[in-house]
Design a protein that fits this description.
about 270 residues, Rossmann fold, six-stranded antiparallel β-sheet
Length: about 270
């Protein structure tokens, strides 16, 4: 039976590569923890392990990679400069394609290799912190507009950024995305009732509607209940999380494992 080939990229997978490129034969950083045992296990299961690096395009680079592997007791079947055919490729700069090209643009925009870190010097001690990624959760607030009495409840609410005046305590929701030269600031910065200000959880219900704290939700199949379960969304400061407080189950709150099965049917501030 022929062996199945697995290809490992060298920099960022075996060599931690936290210092970046210093030259084909300069390999200054420690080995990635646990990689030796993983490679050994693959070879014991009859996989062929090949290490690939552009360093190996240079004779001094090839020698340096082989020496690094030997010094760290990593045994492989071959070291190459180009990727051969294989059943899979293990690379720190790859995005696994899942058959959905429409998601690739966002994945590329947000992509950061695991080992890219910022170095901060504090009291002569170097601290490595993970590179700050783009915030993936939309930060959005909702508040009930003061003096608004529309028959359509949705029109009584403002959505956007939250601002509070320190001197007066007045609260405002601003949506500057609709602001242009012909728009009055008073049309996009609206005073809201402080008691009704709620934050978006970052999740949507089964119909795609955004879920805010203070929303009332319904789920029909909670623990095989015959009647729909009703709950409301609240923020739990102790656990720093948004929870669903189910009103028909005493002293029970939960996070959102069923967000695709719940439906927003109102909120605790609207009479309807």
């Amino acid at each position: 039976m022929s062996k199945k080939t697995v290809v490992f990229d060298f920099d960022g997978v075996i060599h931690s590569y936290t210092s970046g490129w210093k030259g084909a034969d300069v390999i200054p950083d420690p080995v990635v923890e646990g990689i030796q045992s993983t490679i050994n296990s693959l070879r014991q299961e009859y996989y062929e392990v090949i290490v690939v690096s552009t360093r190996c395009a240079y004779p001094e680079g090839m020698s340096a990679v082989k020496k690094y592997l030997a010094d760290n007791h990593i045994v492989v079947d071959a070291v190459m400069k180009e990727k051969p055919p294989a059943i899979c490729y293990i690379d720190d700069r790859a995005i696994c394609f899942d058959g959905h090209p429409e998601t690739l643009l966002e994945k590329v925009r947000n992509f950061t290799p695991w080992n890219k870190a910022l170095s901060i010097n504090s009291n002569n001690r170097e601290i490595r912190i993970e590179k700050v990624r783009k915030i993936k959760r939309e930060i959005l607030f909702r508040g009930k507009i003061k003096e608004s009495k529309s028959a359509h409840e949705e029109l009584n609410w403002a959505f956007g950024n939250f601002v509070r005046e320190l001197e007066t305590g007045k609260c405002f929701i601003s949506d500057l995305s609709h602001f242009d030269g012909d728009t009055k600031l008073s049309d996009v910065i609206l005073e809201v009732d402080p008691k009704t200000v709620c934050q978006y959880t970052g999740l949507t219900d089964k119909n795609g509607k955004k879920i805010f704290e203070g929303d009332i939700v319904r789920r029909t199949d909670l623990y095989n209940a015959k009647e729909p379960s009703i709950g409301f969304i609240e923020y739990d400061a102790e656990n720093t999380a948004f929870l669903i407080h189910w009103t028909d189950i005493e002293n029970y709150s939960a996070t959102f494992p069923w967000k695709d099965k719940i439906e927003v049917i109102g909120n605790i501030f609207d009479e309807s």
